[in-house]
Amino acid sequence: MYNDMSQKSTSGTKLIATNKNARRYYEILDTVEAGIALMGSEVKSLRESKVSFKDGYVRIDANGAWLVGVHIAPYEFATHFGHEPERPRQLLLHRREIDSLAAKVEQKGLSLVPTKMYFKRGKVKVEIALGKGKKTFDRRDDIKQRDIARDTARELTRYK
């Protein structure tokens, strides 16, 4: 009855995973979308959403930008070639984008952290955020503001 095109999302993106700790520990200033060079077994594992951003970050060197510390679980049905779960993976960015990010990281003391991984038109993309590390008191203030907003919303719904 329905064709396959009507059931797909209009944007063509499918979220794989998000890094919840990125917004908790960093104040996000800017985001960049990057492609990522993967092996076939890694893509299969990502289709099953078996990825962890736990200690992930982006390192920039003379050869380009690298995603380090992101754990992609081994694909259990891989027959010939598996992959190393925490190997550095090259990010696919233009040289001018890499140079711009490197200048911001060096100059202002910012960090590059992965925030999201998703499929976009069949390709795996990573959203990289340029963030400034939060201090402990900043995190406490965020928690306090979130609690206040939740309590006021609860009170407003009670009186409606």
TrEMBL record:
GO CC aspect terms: cytosol
Subcellular location: Cytoplasm
Gene Ontology BP terms: trans-translation; trans-translation-dependent protein tagging
CDD domains: SmpB
Keyword annotations from UniProtKB, A to Z: Cytoplasm, RNA-binding
The keyword Amino-acid biosynthesis appears for this protein: no
Gene3D superfamilies referenced in this protein's UniProt entry, alphabetically: 2.40.280.10
Signal peptide start-end: none
Pfam families on file: SmpB
InterPro entries: SmpB (IPR023620), SsrA-bd_prot (IPR000037), SsrA-bd_prot_CS (IPR020081)
GO MF entry, a single one: RNA binding
Function: Required for rescue of stalled ribosomes mediated by trans-translation. Binds to transfer-messenger RNA (tmRNA), required for stable association of tmRNA with ribosomes. tmRNA and SmpB together mimic tRNA shape, replacing the anticodon stem-loop with SmpB. tmRNA is encoded by the ssrA gene; the 2 termini fold to resemble tRNA(Ala) and it encodes a 'tag peptide', a short internal open reading frame. During trans-translation Ala-aminoacylated tmRNA acts like a tRNA, entering the A-site of stalled ribosomes, displacing the stalled mRNA.
Family: Belongs to the SmpB family.
Name by which UniProt lists this protein: SsrA-binding protein
The encoding gene: smpB
